[in-house]
Amino acid sequence: MYKSQLIVSMLHSRDEWEPLINHVGLPRVGIGGVSGLMSVKDIVAHIMAREQHLADRLSVLARGERPRACSTQPELDAFTEEFGYPDFDSPLLSTEAADEWIFQKYRNAPMNEIVADELHAFDSLLTAVRSIPEERLNELGLMPKILDVTVEHYRAHGADIRKRFKRPLRQF
Q1: Residues 22, 3: Cα–Cα separation, whole Å
Q2: Is-contact 106 114, C-beta < 8 A?
Q3: How high is the pLDDT of residue 9?
Q4: 59 closest CA partner among 157, 130, 149, 156
Q5: Does CATH place domain 3-164 in 2.60.40.10?
Q6: How far is CA 172 from the centre of its chain?
Q7: How far apart are CA 167 and CA 19, in angstroms?
Q8: CA distance 92 to 76
Q9: 22 neighbors 168 (Cβ within 8 angstroms)
Q10: 73 in Cβ contact with 92 (< 8 Å)
Q11: What are the beta bridge partners of residue 35?
Q12: Are 41 and 106 in contact (CB under 8 A)?
């Protein structure tokens, strides 16, 4: 895959994702059971944290450094304290534990703040992708991971959202 194709895929999927979140309507974003037990608010926080993590990791690569996954609990705790999210690449952290951490952190946060943070995370990720040469992205096998964190996440969770909220919220 070419980097230009990756970027187009990312942007195209955003063109579908953002209106879908708006389709749900603010009064319904906290309703659970959309994707497993997660609400739309939980899904957006879940995506935002993973996008920000990947954006930060790619920024490290763009500086010529090699990011390293946390291999001890003290490293994982320090990483979480420094960045505000866990190291999703750490073998110490299960997907379930990461999702629970995100849920606990953002459960009382207003949806508009989560959306703003998610938009920022996506922009950071896009900037990081643009800053790394295509050859380096391919050499490190990063394009599939970037697609998974963005396009595939939007597709999978978008299908759950469409299934749960078939009709837009009526505005009076």
Answers
A1: 29
A2: yes
A3: 98
A4: 130
A5: no
A6: 33
A7: 13
A8: 8
A9: no
A10: yes
A11: 38
A12: yes
pTM confidence score = 0.91
∠ at Cα 25 (19, 27), nearest 5°?
160
Distance, in Å, from the CA atom of 136 to the CA atom of 140, rounded to the nearest integer, reads: 6
What's the pLDDT score for residue 172? 47
Tokens of 51: 């996008």
Among left, alpha and beta (phi > 0; psi -120 to 50; other), residue 25 is: left
Rounded Cα distance, 64 and 157, in Å: 33
Going from the C-alpha of 33 to that of each of 38, 161, 171, the distances in angstroms are: 6, 10, 23
140 contacts: CB under 8 Å, gap ≥ 6: 61
Which sequence spans correspond to the domains of the chain? 3-164
Residue 129 makes CB contacts below 8 A (sequence gap 6+) with 3, 6, 7, 10, 58, 137, 146
Residue type at 68 in one-letter notation? R
Helix axes 40-62, 3-24, angle to 10 degrees: 160
For residue range 135-166, what is the model confidence (pLDDT) as tens digits?
A: 999 999 999 999 999 999 999 999 999 999 98
Residue recorded with tokens 């949806």: 111
